[in-house]
Amino acid sequence: MKTSECDIVVVGVGGQGVILISNVIGTATLKAGLPVRGAETHGMAQRGGSVISHIRLGCEYGPMVPPGGADVLVALEPAEALRYGHYLSRDGVALVNTHAILPVTVTTGKATYPPLDAILAPIRKVCREVKAFDATELAVQAGTPQTMNVVMLGALSRYVPLHEETLIEALSESIKAKYIEVNRRAFELGKQEVEAQ
To answer: Where does the chain have alpha helices with state H?
Structure first.
């Protein structure tokens, strides 16, 4: 029995903004009058460490999304999508930024980063739909690569029971006023990208 309206898992590496967009989703959910639960694990100040955030919309029970229970996986980095793909439900949707962040083992030559097709193939086997695109490039088009997480938030807006205006309002309350316009552009580009696929 499902105990929430929508379960979301957001993953990435330290410094990509996983926690910011998780907080925006949580704030927007409360603005919509729904209960929300969430939990996160991250490598503290370790930039580049794995980060995962669970967000359960319309849920009054525990904060953790069970494996096989996520309606949406938002992956800010492709290898992190593979690492946490087991959280997706069979009816779930994976939103994957295809821009890789190479770990130290790869940059020092001790390992190789897998090809994108090898990363996406197993994810496609466990869920209904995979939307993969270069969100970092879209963020550059918006005005700064630091808005990549907001591109992904815009993509997510097509799959959650929240109004776009509510998400943008929550986003606007979470960032400095001088960055609102570039973030709005990033949000719109992410939304348009998944609509076009």
So the answer is: 18-31, 78-84, 104-107, 116-126, 135-142, 148-156, 164-174, 180-196
